[in-house]
Sequence to fold (130 residues):
Amino acid sequence: MFGIGFFEFIVIAIVAIIFLGPDKLPSAIIKIIKTFKTFSKSINEAKTVIEQELNIEELKEDSKKYRALLEQNTQKIKKTISSDELSVLQQSAKEVNSALEDIKKANQDNLGDIKTDDARSVSETLEDKN
Fold:
C-alpha cells in the first residue's frame, strides 16, 4: 500500500496517536478510510474510462486499417476485372478480324469467279458474232 512497509506504518500510527490522542483517533481513521475508499473508487472509475477510451481509439485505428485494406482490395479487384474484360475484348477483336479476313477472301473469290464468268460471256458473245 503506497510502498509503505510495516515499520513505517507503525511510526505513522504512533505519530497519529500523539497528535490526535486516543479519543479522536478512531473517528480520524474512519474518515481517512472513507476518503481513501472514495479516492480509490474515483481512480478505478477513471482507469475504466481511460481504458474504454483507449479501446475505442484502438478500434478506430483497426477500423481505419481494415477500411484501407478493403479499398486496396477493391482497387485490385477492379484492376483484375478490367484486365479480364480487356482480354475478352482482345479475343473478340481477334475473332472479328478473322471473320473480316474470311469475308474479304470470300469476296475476292466471288469477284474472281464473276470476272471469269464475264470473260467467258464476252468470249462466247464474240464467238457468236463471228
The chain has one helix and no strands.
